[in-house]
């Protein structure tokens, strides 16, 4: 009975791998590049990311927003990214979905720009077009196979589920009967024929990367399936309907749109002296309601999670009306805010990036 069951598992494992192999290979090659996206971006676009001229004081963010908007007419910039580094320019993002998307990922986007502006002089130093930027495309190759978002993430989601099945079935097939067999399956016999070396790499490498495979697959499935995401929230003892619940949005109108932007931004700057990155999101001008949402990411020796605080401001007055600090988050909220960093291997810096990179290359084989 055990022998027959193992044969069935082996058949399913083989065909699951054959059906998903090319998809997983392509996706993982994209992942192996995107692991290094921060360093690659800073190097490749260094001429527009870093300040060539500095002053004693930075300009108001409303002035920087005005200059960027004037330089790119017809585009609305709704996110500001600021690094706690006086040598770096500020980055404003403008995104708009296409009204007539096709089959490919770029066809679903009208524009997706990251524009850099010198915060001391207001000079526009350049932009990154994320529809064509090769570093950004490596992410979406991994996430969508460069197909239309819903289609691509659906295919990747199925491939992710297959990876989880292959991990479980692979362990059943790998499990040795004796200590002698165990020793053979934990090493690669490099002097053997290629077929044996390939099998050893698959078996031994699969064992050493087993937990990482499950980890990266399970953290990635949350982007494809809401039921998976909600299931993890429930496992952590929380209600998916109750997490990230905020107060009602304040009313805004075109005449008073973003009058409180500078007040809100100054408030954010004074929240923490040890902040690392500020994300400053403003509502679209045509909305009747909206909030300024400011996120402050920082390092904390007291937490294993990615630590960040969030503050909500009235865009008309700049008055804070809600806060959402890391130490107030539920367990599932801490997980949700850390899931991206865990999935891409950036959560603990270089060591976890190396793990993610090596695993991505192995999974691609």
Describe, in plain words, how this protein is organized in 3D.
The model has no long low-confidence stretch (mean pLDDT 89). The protein has helices at 2-34, 37-44, 46-49, 61-71, 134-144, 149-174, 179-185, 194-208, 210-220, 226-235, 261-269, 331-344, 350-364, and strands at 79-83, 90-97, 109-117, 124-129, 275-281, 292-298, 307-313, 320-324. It is 48% helix and 15% strand. It has 13 helices and eight strands.
Q: Can you lay out the helices and strands and say which pair or pack?
A:
Blueprint: H1 2-34, H2 37-44, H3 46-49, H4 61-71, E1 79-83, E2 90-97, E3 109-117, E4 124-129, H5 134-144, H6 149-174, H7 179-185, H8 194-208, H9 210-220, H10 226-235, H11 261-269, E5 275-281, E6 292-298, E7 307-313, E8 320-324, H12 331-344, H13 350-364
Antiparallel strand pairs: 1-2, 1-5, 2-3, 3-4, 5-6, 6-7, 7-8
């Amino acid at each position: 009975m055990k022998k027959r069951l193992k044969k069935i598992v082996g058949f399913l494992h083989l065909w699951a791998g054959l059906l998903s192999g090319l998809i997983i290979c392509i996706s993982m090659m994209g992942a192996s590049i995107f692991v290094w996206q921060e360093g690659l971006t800073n190097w490749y676009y260094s001429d527009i990311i870093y300040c060539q001229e500095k002053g004693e004081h930075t300009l108001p963010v409303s002035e920087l927003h005005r200059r960027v908007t004037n330089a790119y007419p017809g585009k609305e910039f709704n996110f500001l990214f600021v690094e706690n580094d006086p040598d770096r320019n500020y980055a404003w993002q403008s995104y708009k979905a296409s009204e007539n998307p096709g089959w490919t990922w770029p066809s679903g986007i009208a524009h997706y720009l990251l524009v850099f502006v010198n915060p001391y002089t207001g000079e526009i130093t350049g932009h990154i077009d994320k529809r064509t930027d090769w570093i950004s495309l490596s992410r979406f190759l991994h996430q969508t196979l460069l197909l239309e978002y819903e289609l691509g993430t659906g295919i990747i989601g199925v491939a992710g589920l297959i990876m989880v099945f292959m991990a479980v079935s692979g362990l059943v097939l790998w499990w040795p009967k004796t200590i002698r067999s165990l020793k053979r399956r934990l090493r690669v016999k490099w002097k053997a024929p290629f077929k044996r070396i390939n099998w050893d790499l698959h078996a031994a490498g699969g064992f050493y990367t087993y937990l990482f495979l499950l980890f990266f697959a399970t953290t990635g499935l949350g982007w494809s399936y809401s039921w998976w995401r909600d299931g993890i929230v429930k496992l952590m003892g929380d209600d998916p309907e109750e997490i990230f619940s905020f107060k009602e949005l304040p009313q805004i109108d075109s005449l008073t749109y973003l009058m409180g932007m500078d007040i809100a931004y100054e408030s954010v700057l004074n929240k923490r002296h040890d902040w690392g990155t500020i994300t400053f999101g403003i509502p679209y001008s045509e909305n009747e309601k909206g909030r300024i949402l400011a996120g402050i990411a920082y390092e904390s020796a007291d937490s294993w999670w990615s630590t960040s605080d969030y503050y909500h401001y009235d865009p008309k007055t700049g008055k804070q009306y809600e806060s959402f600090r890391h130490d107030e988050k539920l367990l599932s909220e801490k997980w949700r805010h850390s899931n991206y960093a865990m999935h891409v291997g950036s959560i603990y810096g270089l060591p976890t990036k190396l793990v993610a990179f090596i695993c991505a290359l192995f999974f691609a084989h």
